[in-house]
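Workshop exercise sheet. Pairs work together: one partner reads the sequence aloud, the other fills in the structure field after running the prediction. Swap roles for the next sheet.
Pair: D.N. / O.F.
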Amino acid sequence: MSTTARALSAVVGVALLAALPVAAQAQAFSGSMGVAGRWAIDLPRSKFNTALTGPPPLSGELDITVDDGKNLAWTLVEEDEAGVAALQFAHAVLDGAPTKAVVNLNLVMISVQRVGQSAVTVTTHGDAGVRHQSMKVTRTDPNTILVEQDIDGQPGPPDQTLILTRVK
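Structure field:
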């Protein structure tokens, strides 16, 4: 798995977009999503598609530092046998507007749109020929985040499903 694909897989990095219009979202969903804090990838419960992304990381931690109902900010670090396999920083408004994220020291355009009281879609945007990914990230209970990821752009079930559990 390339480090860029691995970094995008954990957050940001979710199923096909099914977003509501921005105006409806602003009225329907408000307040914190309840995701601030540190989260770890639960490797045994997650399902990786090694054909698309390579081997799974040995560990991964997501630190969500801003969750105010209008913005999310996070840092993602994944490790493999060689050390840091993926590194990502982002601060995004939840209105679907494109913004820059740092993925393995590269600037990547993403958009984040709120699609539920505790759910967002995250989409990477790239030039023609660059892999386009989308993810639906949902807090399914106070201590679990589900990340359903579409990597190949083909209709159907998610290409990968990641489970993150609250560390603190």
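Discussion prompt: The radius of gyration is 14 Å. What would you look at next?
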